[in-house]
Amino acid sequence: SHSLPAVNNDKIGQAIDSLQSALHLIKAASNQSGPWVDARHLLDETVAALDDAGLALQCQPARKSVDMTKQLNPDEHYIRELADEVVNTRQRFLGGSLIHDTDGIWTKSVYGECDGFSFGTETDELYRVPDEEKKEKALIVYASQNGTTGGTTKTFAKHLCKSLGGDTYCDLRNMSGIMAKDLAMYKRVYIVCNTSGLGRPPCDGEVFYSHVQLEAMRCQENLEDLAIGDGDEEKPLAGTSVAIAVWVDSSSPDYAKFGLGLTEELVSLGASTALKTITVDEQKVKLEQKQTFKEWESTIIEMEKESTIIEMEKERLMASGPRRRTSKTIATSAA
């Protein structure tokens, strides 16, 4: 037992409880057959636990030795171990780039008063891409759970890509390899994915969905800081339209949760919805699933045709615009 004041013991106990509770939440979040844990909640809980750990460490007597580790008492050692585990295991969902503990109590207690300690770089920032810089191609994103539907969503995404004219007209990407900033580079995004029974994102989409949830939180905070109110034009996904088709198991009570949740998060980041999010029921026969998808796909093909016509018309006008002005100039000078 340590001869520390009771208040310190309380803080140590509190820190250990908080860290263990945070690890329990991360474990629950990782459970493929459990419900989804919102990334914002995961961030709040882990940051609060690390703050408790920082407070507990700050209460410890000052060190004489430069080598801190030699003088750590067992409690401190345990707190640091748990905290490291929290930081490492939460990265699966929270990544590194979005967590800026620049002035967190935990960071200060471990790293001292530094100029800020942040994970990742500024290049990971999601920002508004001007419409004229967005790609004319459509982006098709697919994601799957390990299992039967895995092949299905990729097959349907490939079919959509082919129907839109192939690689010349669209980019096909797996959700596991993209972030929200990739969506911002396109005017039109089509997402074909599935969901697990409890409304979780598919395996391929877990990191992406967490990232989108954290970006939605950050976007909201930024707008509040700037006092823009709803400033849709300032939002990072403004100028990008999305349409989502999700394969679901209708026998599960929360089957539509992920598809609708993803739509909501992307809209809160400024995206517009080109079509209402549709669910394709895996309980139905294959032919019926194909039919549902085909209807969705044919609407997209029509929309793509229209946008191509509009773009061609714009290009034609731009090409003919300057020439008309030139001819006028010649006429004037000739006169």
Helix content: 40-55%
Q: What characteristic shape results from the CA principal axes? A: elongated
Provide the residue-averaged pLDDT: 79
The CATH architecture classification of the largest domain is 3-Layer(aba) Sandwich
Portion in beta strands: 5-15%
Q: What is the H/E order? A: HHHHEHEHEHEHEEH
Whole-number count of domains: 2
Count the DSSP helices.
9
State the fourth-level CATH superfamily of the largest domain: Flavodoxin domain
Rg (CA only)? 26 Å
GO cellular component, one term: cytosol
Protein name: Flavodoxin-like domain-containing protein
InterPro entries: Flavodoxin/NO_synth, Flavoprotein-like_sf
Keywords: Flavoprotein
In brief, what are we looking at here?
With 335 residues, the chain is an alpha/beta fold.
Structural descriptors:
335 residues, 2 domains, 6-stranded parallel beta sheet, 52% helix, disordered N terminus, FMN binding, Flavodoxin/NO_synth
